[in-house]
Amino acid sequence: MNRAKKILLFDTIIDGHHADYLTHLITYWIANRLQGELIVVTQQSFQKQYDALTKQKPGAANVRFVPISSSDIEIVHGASMATRSFKEWNLMLKYIGMHEPDHVLLMYFDLFMLASWLGRSAPCAVSGIYFRPDFHYKVRPGIKAKLNDARKKITLKAVLGGKSLANLFCLDHSAVDGLRQLSPYIKIWPLADPVESYDIMPAEVEQLRANLQIEPNRRILLLFGHLDDRKGIEPLLEAMKRLPAQQKNRLCLVLAGPIQPDFRALVERKIAEVGPDVQVVRVFREIKGREIQVHFELSDYVLALYQHHVGMASVVVRAAVSRKPVLASDYGYLGHLVQSEELGAVTDATSPDAIRSLLERVVTTEIPYSEARLQKLAEQNSDVYFAETIFNHL
């Protein structure tokens, strides 16, 4: 890395992993006293977290936070899918003009793809983190899906065939070889899906068990993250509804994460249909830092029953950090990873009957998995390795 560079990190989204990724990069920059300047451009709400990361830190003198105005956020987030890419790209160009960096890292490149091809050229080097490449997935049936797939492939080929990017960091490692074949100019790098780990004491886990009032002799299933229809909660609850009572009595489902009121009302209705035999613990709020890992340490199985999910999922890495097996969708890279690396078990996450069969295995037998493979995955996806990979190539 040329350590005299001025690097600008750009992200208009700040919830979930977006804040975590910025945190990892800022922390690494400060800890390693990197030279040059790091400019963090994101929503104003990140200010408090940024201050905590940088306050009275000797290596933070060359790190700067630049909040994006609320009016600019409203404009880009309120745009249609057809125009948002260009509005995001033009907003990035605005901040490039203001701060004149040597290199910009787009923290969520998926949004910028179309504009990076057809939009105005950037006056400096631009790289991006690519979350959900799906050009190598089997196309779902239907004309609309096929047309959408064709559009995305044309755009991807055009982007990778040009010179608008310097580097593309890809979270889906199974896509890297295919991306490299499409890209004569852009450097493609596999990227860790980073998770910070903590030394959790057994007393912390027992305290959480007591706080959540989890009943004894139940297998604890953790469904963690922003709780919406993509997480497969509805087919999961339908599957639980179809279990016999003696198996329901062996299960505890922990729903942990923020949830919108309308979707919460739907979930509550589904929980009522399951009945009282399954213990359902609701932790409907954002959970951060050390507390996240305590929830994973408490669980027996981690759920990743996502609906047609593209790419990697950080809950798999969090499960690996705590050495807990994963029950995942059999779709895409996530399903391939869990199955090939023996991280747990996969099933058709759209089918309540398929999920029910998997839950029956959880209750009546043990799901085989490799603790050594879980440990290896955790080591390969550390926050330090994530930041090293990025800064070594900018």
UniProtKB/TrEMBL annotation:
<protein>
    <submittedName>
        <fullName>Glycosyltransferase</fullName>
    </submittedName>
</protein>
<feature type="domain" description="Glycosyl transferase family 1">
    <location>
        <begin position="206"/>
        <end position="369"/>
    </location>
</feature>
<dbReference type="InterPro" id="IPR001296">
    <property type="entry name" value="Glyco_trans_1"/>
</dbReference>
<keyword id="KW-0808">Transferase</keyword>
<dbReference type="GO" id="GO:0016757">
    <property type="term" value="F:glycosyltransferase activity"/>
</dbReference>
<dbReference type="Pfam" id="PF00534">
    <property type="entry name" value="Glycos_transf_1"/>
</dbReference>
